# Entry
Amino acid sequence: MKEMPNVLWLEEIKKEDIISVGGKGASLGEMTAIGLPVPKAFVVTAQAFRKFLVETGIEDTLFRRLERLDVDDNGALESVSRDVQDLVLAVGIPDHIKAEVVDAYARMGANGTVVAVRSSATAEDLPEASFAGQQETFLNILGDDALLDAVQRCWASLYGARAIYYRAKQGFDDRSVNIAVVVQELIRSEKSGVMFTSHPVTGEPLTIVEGSWGLGEAVVSGSVSPDNYVFDLRSERVVDRLIAEKEIMIVPEGKHGTKIVELSAKERTAPVLTDAEVARLAMLGKIAEDHYGIPQDIEWAIVGDDVFILQSRPITTIRRPEIPRAGAEAAGQQKNTPLGVVLLEGQGASPGIASGRVVIVRDVKETSAVKDGDILVTKMTNPDMVPAMRRVSAIITDEGGMTCHAAIVSRELGTPAVVGTKKATKILNDGQIVTVDGEKGTIYEGAVEAPTAAAPAAVTAAAPAPVITGTLVKVNVSLPEAAQRAAATGADGVGLLRIEHLILGLSKTPGWYIEHDEEETFIAELYTGIKTVLDAFPGKPVWVRTLDAPTDEFRNMEGGEDEPLEHNPMLGWRGIRRDLQSPGQFRLQVEAFKRLWAAGYDNLGVMFPMVNHPREFIKARAMMAEWGVDVETATLGVMIEIPSSAILVEDFIKAGIRFASFGTNDLIQYTLAIDRNNENVADMYEPEHPAVLRLIDYAIQTCRAHGVECSICGQAGSDPKMVTWLVEHGISSVSANIDAIPRIREAVARKERQILLDAARRNA
Ligand code: PEP
Ligand code: MG
# Structure
């Protein structure tokens, strides 16, 4: 590294020099070498920056501060960033580096050249990451002092809060990231913009050119919605153009910096480029793409008849057509499909379809209102919004084009995005549910189901094909007569068969049958009722729960007169605790199960309710063994309805449970001390309370680690939102009410696909 010069001219640079000159510098050098019209420039190399850190003695202090930083702590991030930047700005540039920079600058032009000073970050595996917009650029710089100051500010900008955050999240070690600075003749462009040499989403040979008046910063920063031209490289024709209303332009101001100028009514709607200019740009783009072998994202400028290429870098996010694009036919079909009301259109900047709740963010401070899965709607995103952008399911902006911040970051995050809608923040309302199609650039009213590749033409004639989900979607059954209807949902089994309803339907308590020597009648009733359900689900698991009726529910039945009067039956003599103390009652149930197993119903599983300690499970199983059940082969599991059983789930697993199922109806009431039947506290009955979720998550993870099936059969299992969360957290099956099965299956399928897509994108 030591031998590398402090300054390199574009003509001396090759793409291998990326470590010294950064992605931007290497690319400009390479483009110069292949004869593209690149404005004159030299690069202050990464080695100059490292010498600066070492020779000024700030290197160790700087990296130590960064090492100790937790980037998720916003306050700390801001303060360390400020400190480190101050450190870089406070010391003087060593004289020998200064002299070389000033000398190179003098060689650019006799009377001082106006230059753009651009950061060019370097990292060993730079092509994997996009550092776009992370570091500073200074335009319209004139004179030695201004130049040296701009170079030093570029160096400091390597430690801007967003740059530090971004690198940390992308896994870059700060010590291995350097910065070079490109000093380039400023092109006083009359028009400028960006182009993608191939379509940035589909990869088709369509060059997308975006252009606006004045300097290109207006397009790159997203502060204007640019004209959009599509040039088909096959037919060599402009095949689409969208002339935007360009409200402003950015121009150099005096001797330093830039200013924003309002455009006249005529300029606003006038096309920026002629077809000939688009074609010329596309051809230059093609030269770059052919040379690099991959599609490029290029900044261009035009002054009079001169076209300049200002920078070129690979598009990192082209999605290869892994899902064969059904092409024109499918697109045509979809147009005929009523997908719902189109609220808004813009540019599809990042593919994917997502529905959610609109949250309009007018200021970065408002991003705390953005929750997981929301749709972020804003004029234009900025780097401070990135943490919120990670949480949302889609992004919509008023401004910007395919290369604006929102577009680039969304593509890297794999979040659907539509940019440049002009009026999303005015038209959409907070809380409104919308669907974003990030490929087509369309926003629909409500949650629109994504069209599937094969449009179901024969929907009227046949039931839709069942959606196959990796997470089993089972159904809850209480009454045997509902078994057929439950099975017709196509559910993957029964996750909860509550036999107390069967018993309560008998109008006599189990105790009555025992007392009156009618045990056989009771067993037969149970046998028949359960068998009806098993018959409706051949080959699919059916989990039958042992009796769980609180004493107050038995009291009105024949034989219920002697039921104890309990102060709080919910916390009383019910579930497995009662069966263990009433072996006569438990044995009748077990007898019914035994006969069903003997009859060949090996899909029958038995689930114990209200367990709060593994010893209850161990005892229940021992009693079953004593009554002749082969407990080694029987599928025996427990409900997780009491926090103690969630906390002790590992001990239950060690005790031999084959599955666990969340009874959230009770788990919520016992975790929050909120009586599930008391309307005075009903509004505090909170299924998504963090404590409840934490218990559930812990139990899921523990079951997963031990390969034990983990399910849910409480009402929360019929809530798509909760189920989405459960799938995300790795639950193995869910069991919902009959009516909820279609929407739960859809929620499961949607989440699973999202997980697969995310994984595919991560590995892409
Ligand atoms: C539960 O507690 O969530 C459950 C399924 O059992 P029940 O509603 O019968 O108490
Ligand atoms: Mg319960």
User: Anything to note?
Assistant: The CA atoms of residues 512 and 692 lie 38 Å apart. The first strand starts at residue 7 and ends at 9. The chain is about 40% helix and 20% strand. The pocket of phosphoenolpyruvate (ligand 1) is lined by residues 496, 498, 548, 641, 663-666, 713-714 (CB under 6 Å).
